[in-house]
Amino acid sequence: MNTQLPQDRLRITEIFLSLQGEANAAGWPTVFVRLTGCPLRCQYCDTAYAFHGGQWWEIDAILAEVARHGVRHVCVTGGEPLAQKRCLDLLRRLCDAGHDVSLETSGALDIAGVDPRVSRVVDLKTPGSAEMARNRLENIPLLTARDQVKFVLCGRADYEWARDMVAEHGLSARCDVLFSPSKGQLEARDLADWIVADRLPVRFQMQLHKILWNDEPGR
User: Fold this and answer.
1) Residue 54 among known ligand-binding residues
2) Where on this chain does S-adenosyl-L-methionine bind (predicted)?
3) Which of 30, 122, 123, 144 could make a disulfide contact with 20, Cβ separation 3.0–4.6 Å?
4) Quick check: 204 and 213 in contact, CB under 8 A?
């Protein structure tokens, strides 16, 4: 008889090994644990397949699958991983197992309970995302040097909004700040030129995995 309690399980869309495509761990072989479900509907979302479905996994089984790949870096992503309460348990246990763990979160949910050993990559939503109202600005004072803030920009208006947010909240003094062009909506060269012209204390990035494999799931 299966005595596994529901609170020891998470709904998972996929677990796979690839290269980290963004943030300060870009280029490292990384195991991605993609949790199912997201309360947001950003207009540029490239992982809508993770909104529904998935399979229930026991946390022990997730850790075993991650360990099977034999790499140090692990990224817990979604969807919106923090929408599942047991994500916090998973993050803690991955850290306990000795992994270098990052969390990709929309910033719409409270990050206070995330294990301090985790690097939190918080995606602040711009006006062009159609989900700006979901930003939980109470997360900003919680950010530390281990964390990162990401802005996905759809055009000049998004850039100016993000530039003002960086200045207003002193984001670059708290953590790394990442500016990314939304694929098909903002030319990467334009964004790079704006950052240089304004001498912004931010890191320009492009999504390495999209350059290599486009939007292929599991890559």
Assistant:
1) no
2) 44-46, 79
3) 30
4) no
| Total residues belonging to the chain | 219
> Which residues, listed in sequence order, are joined to residue 120 by a DSSP beta bridge?
103
Q: d(Cα 154, Cα 79) in Å, to the nearest integer? A: 20
Number of domains composing the chain:
1
44 annotated as a binding-site residue: yes
* Whole-prediction pTM: 0.92
Span 169-190, pLDDT tens digits: 999 999 999 999 998 999 999 9
Residue with tokens 């694929």: 183
164 marked as binding residue: no
Q: Name the residue among 174, 147, 150 with its Cα closest to residue 162.
A: 150
Residue 87 is part of a domain; what is its CATH number? 3.20.20.70
Distance CA 87, CA 94 (A): 11
**Residue 47, marked binder:** yes
